[in-house]
Request: fold
Amino acid sequence: MRARVLIRPKAGILDPQGEAVQRALPALGFAGVANVHVGRLVELDVDDPEQLQPMCEKLLANPLVEDYEIQLLDSAAA
Amino acid sequence: MRFGVLQFPGSCDEVDALQAARRVGDAALLWHGERDLKGADAIVVPGGFSYGDYLRAGAIARFAPVMESVIAFANDGGLVLGICNGFQVLCEARLLPGALLGNANLRFTFRQVALDVVNPDSAFTRACGSAAHPPQPLSIPAKHSWGRYYADERTLDELERGGQVVLRYAPGENFNGSLRDIAGVQNAAGNVFGLMPHPEHAVDPLTGSTDGLCIFESMRLAVEGAHA
Reply:
């Protein structure tokens, strides 16, 4: 099964990367941008999707500082 | 007194750590793929970019075979010092609380920093001063991109109450945005310590400061005191 894991900095933790992108966008003429955060994307094929959550807890994310979201993708569409 | 200094693919400060440790005792490198700590009395997890810092700094290194032995050694009360990337590895391994995030200034920064010794009685700082001469701020270089210490407020309060905050950036020195100016923390038991600045780069007058030596000397005292 194709899966996608989105990893984001936890809300409330300073995200200087997101802030830098947010400052850069108006400089390029893109107005009305707020709450920019930069995270990480992991895509993988797994035989057992049940393993995805423990994978996130143990390695793919650091749950102290990051939230993760698991998306299962249709194999045919992937 | 024998130090074991870990070496991962991508470590770059293991030789300086080895040389610093040899100023106070015997020291040998321990390759990441080995499980045998070769009779080391204390472990140093050095700086660098273990396994390329892929995914997150220290995230892969914590699963190295040698780390299984280091975790068992630490849980058994053995002294473990993590410097820079080594601090990140110890946090990822949950031997130390918290995490290291990207510097608030978004830059790799290399500078000499002044550090206040907040806990002068720890196994890692007791040689930095004495009852008659409380420790002066340590002048030690820092060089990293991912050094912003983070833990939630409750954990930070516990750390402060328990004397686990060992080193703080002196006023005006906290370039990376670490919460509560924390530069180095130890675990609750006091046998595992991590810091972002590099004491192993401050052991010879040639490089401007020898203030880092007292960290290694403290470890020697702690080990030899325990054996006495």
Residues 7 and 31 of chain B are 5 Å apart (CA to CA).
